[in-house]
Amino acid sequence: MASKAQVEMVEKIIDYRFASKDYLHQALTAARGEGEDRDDGNRALAQIGAHWFDTLLMILLMRMGASKEDKANLRIEFTRKDHFTFAAKRTGISQCIKYSSKPGSESSTVLRYAINAIIGAVLLDTASHTIGTTLGVITRYVYADNDYTMIDPTFDSLSDLMPSITETDQIPPNLATSVHHLSDAQLICDDPFVNLSMFDSQMSTDGLSIIPDYAGVMTAESSLSYSTDDPIIQTLPRQDSPAVSSLVLCSPRLPRATIAPESNHLQGSLKKRDEQAKSSANTSIPDSTLREFLNKERMKCSAQHLPPPEETYFTPEIHNALRSPTHESIKPLLPLLITMGSPDAIVSLRGMICNIRAQPSCHSCRLQDGLSPARRYSLIEQLEHSASTMQLMKWYHIYELFRECGGPDTVSSSGYANSTPASFPIGQKCLGNPVHHGDANVSKTMMKDIFPDMDPSTDEYKKQFRRIQKLRKLGQRLHALIDKFGKGILGLMVGRSSSGGFDIPVSDTMLFKPTEGAFACFISLLESSQGDSLRAFGDAVWGVLRPALFGTLSGDVFDIERLDPEYILRQVKGSPGLLGIIC
Question: Does an H or E element contain 208, and which?
Fold first, then answer.
């Protein structure tokens, strides 16, 4: 079971004091497998929490009037495994879990179980199963980080569905509080597309949480209408906690058009073409987001007299790959075949550079030549739980660590990092795959460099060894992309989140999970459809990205920083106009 100290720490994190600590003890205890006095741990609570979370989400989406398709898409976005993993690590909850001693005990699945189990524990601990209390806890530690802030420009926020909860130790059986209306507070950013709060977990005014919407407007009032007589709006007070209404649970943006035709006289013909293209795309591409993206690109191409996507990057080969993937493991990466280097990516890149310029704290994690493996590994761990802007910096550190510790040829040659082929005995035979043996030898040598005093027989050594192996594989994948398309390619993999802020839609797991053959197929698809274009854009991006990552930005801002993001969004992916914006 989790310790008393771990339980108390989680209570502080989620700002909720349990009446029965047994629920939280169980929620923080991971299931154990064979050979460990088998115990289901928090599995039952995790199931309760997952269903309760899903129920609350559906209630909120129903209130918003979301369509069936939007409900499905938003549910997927809200409940991503990586999202819960990030939340657990960022808040410190991951340090409070009683893990199993088996390999993989700190996997993303285990962390997701713990998050859901805590939600279930709050539900069971709340006498009347109030919605408001659980929503407050979910908001406080699952969606508190601005990397996952999601506001719809139409609905603004769901704060009005989260009523105030008075501070009292007693829970009257028939109390139904009215909804707490936030004041009409708005702060307008100088640059609506630069959200500095992505580096800070929360911004507030007079104690009220202020969340930027998709255009950067700080909103503290909802435009949703509701009735305070609705039982869903009625809540019970929670013990020893501030008002939950000061915390905002935001909804993802629903799909909406962002780029309109530039000329009124073209609207009729463009609308007709768009409807025809949309009808064709809807029957072949399962991802609605990609369908919408391609439809917008076709409209822009027609207005600017440029060839449509089908004549550039959206080749029949790419079309078939999206419709019927030959490798299931690269399916999560396939949207990049369409979105990599898009205007959205360039807008996000612009915002990232502006944020790094405005945030001196980025300098401490900057890229540097000649760092020791131990120092670079420490920076990678430090960046692991940072905002999306810093995640891109983490990728480049991982790439450099892989390159400096032997690069892609170590397994097939010496099998040793930071040394010579003579460092290992020659001609020694052993059973098993020689590539796997070589990879293990590289990882062992890196362990000596990074943790010289760690005992190889300890569980901590085994944990760090597995971490090193994963980083090497991720570094290998990043190296393959950079080797083919140039260092700037990683900057083209960024995107915009549902709220319009900077985001990296590709997780580490998506990159290292595919087999070698599947990942090679993904790179081959990129090369055949848009290889030359990606190299040209990658070179241009690296010119502005390198000073930002190495902490050498001068006082002179880049041209891309001065441009209106809407102007960038009007450009066509791969077009000379978009390339000229970066150069």
Answer: strand 208-209
- Measured between its terminal Cα atoms, the distance across the chain in Å is 57
CA distance 397 to 385: 14
Structure tokens at 562: 């001065």
Asked whether residue 141 carries a pLDDT value surpassing 90, the answer given is no
- pLDDT band, residue 144 (cuts 50/70/90): low
Taking the C-alpha atoms of residue 196 and residue 212, their distance in angstroms, rounded to an integer, is 10
Written as six digits, the tokens of 275 are 């409807």
Q: Which two tokens stand for residue 109?
A: 């699945």
Pull the structure tokens for residue 486.
Answer: 């140039």
- Mean pLDDT over each residue of the chain, to the nearest integer: 71
Domains in the chain, ordered, with CATH?
4-246 (1.10.1520.10), 343-411+456-582 (no CATH)
Which ranges of 360-503 does DSSP label H, i.e. alpha helix? Answer: 373-383, 388-404, 434-450, 459-485
Per DSSP, the three-state class of 287 is coil
What pLDDT is stored for residue 492 in this prediction? 93
For 529, other C-beta atoms within 10 Å of its C-beta total: 20
pLDDT (0 to 100) of residue 392: 87
β-strand partners of 29: 98
List beta partners, residue 204: 209
Exposure string of 260-298, with b = 16+ CB inside 10 Å and e = fewer, is ebeeeeeeeebeebbeebeeebeeebeeeebbbbbbbbb
The contacts of residue 157 (CB under 8 Å, 6+ apart) are 151, 211, 219, 222, 248, 249, 250, 251
